[in-house]
From TrEMBL:
<dbReference type="InterPro" id="IPR025841">
    <property type="entry name" value="CP_ATPgrasp_2"/>
</dbReference>
<protein>
    <submittedName>
        <fullName>Circularly permuted type 2 ATP-grasp protein</fullName>
    </submittedName>
</protein>
<dbReference type="Pfam" id="PF14403">
    <property type="entry name" value="CP_ATPgrasp_2"/>
</dbReference>
<dbReference type="InterPro" id="IPR016450">
    <property type="entry name" value="UCP005522"/>
</dbReference>
<dbReference type="InterPro" id="IPR051680">
    <property type="entry name" value="ATP-dep_Glu-Cys_Ligase-2"/>
</dbReference>
<feature type="domain" description="Circularly permuted ATP-grasp type 2">
    <location>
        <begin position="77"/>
        <end position="452"/>
    </location>
</feature>
Amino acid sequence: MAKFFNEMTADGMAHTASAEVREHYREFCGWLQRQSAETIERKRAEADLTFRRVGITFAVYGDDAGTERLIPFDTIPRIIPAAEWKQLQTGLVQRVKALNMFIHDIYHDQNIIKAGIIPAEQIYKNAQYRPEMQGINVVSDIYAHIAGVDIVRAGQGEFYVLEDNLRVPSGVSYMLEDRKMMMRLFPELFARNKIAPVDHYPDMLLDNLRSVAPMGINDPTVVVMTPGMYNSAYFEHAFLAQQMGVELVEGKDLFVSDNTVFMRTTRGPKRVDVIYRRLDDDFLDPLAFRPDSSLGVPGLLSVYRAGRVTLANAIGTGVADDKSIYPYVPDMIKFYLSEEPVLNNVPTYQCRKKEDLAYTLANLPELVVKEVHGAGGYGMLVGPASTKAQIEDFRQRLLAKPDGYIAQPTLALSACPTYVENGIAPRHIDLRPFVLSGKTISMVPGGLTRVALQQGSLVVNSSQGGGTKDTWILEK
């Protein structure tokens, strides 16, 4: 069995009396050992019932039933000590700052291309590159107002960035609801442990969005724009609008007149200044992108180009979270900030390069191979968990379109004790902290911890049956 870093115990064992518990878990572990199995099971059932009643669901693609279901919630938290969080936060702020500078650069002076650091075709042939954004100035030069950066832990406990989610990153509602649930079920734990709060995230998000309103707007109107109730993350869209106290709108609720965006209300048209949009670029404006889109607002791009509305995140942001651009982020940090990266990337082979492709083809059973435009754990090969037939099928895909893939070593992701059918056992996890960029860069101390519930699985995505945990950042 492969060795991996265990978040709770120093010897890699599950929660047992003989395991050496890490210092920051000792208070919780002592409490857990005093709880009866019946008490914990009753609390878990209560959590499931409450989540079902509130409607915290997620569409699981490929599910034969075709219905939405609960994201499994685990009552054993992921705990991070203050010093580790400080390092993570420093690295995340640095990374998102550089990514915003990169997006501004490629749509303006393109200095990073001129310097020979990133090949021009990697930008211009990228499916997420939007030539319509060339030369357009956005407020404060901020493109990724909300970033969800996926962090994993491997080796002796080193943190790595697995990917950058800059388009419409989701999951923050689960972070907030997981915390509310833990406080409801186990209030005594929050009296005994100094756990940094996360419940102010909606206020921080609203302040961040208001700070990037168009020039001259002192009291901006902010809305959350959703594709509609059939979107898999609709719960989150409605939740964030409600928590921020702003309107949740669909494209049909908005219209353009006099180079301004308006919202239809019972009191007549109301100007909209900031749109936190939760649908992809292609669907935003049928006059500019997909003409068959019924989800967008005709004429929205022209208002945006004129600087009379802010879109968060900006159009064209996805070019920076594409997996073919990911290997260059450390170079971006050095180029734009003249700093060494605080957080490392996972070593990455770019299959468009002849030597990287040769290595990947020779080592498929040991590697993870991902589509550069893929998301949600789809379109990927986890070599050690794949059959010979699956590996050979992927080999043919790689040979047919090598520039569509990257490959990475299979990391022994860290594990955290988790309730499973047979009791408590280690399960692999990742972490998605959320970074807000506006006049300043800010974060709440925490994030969404996702857990792969199947034994040995490294795929934590909710869309493929993964679960979530509350994430505790301990205050000093």
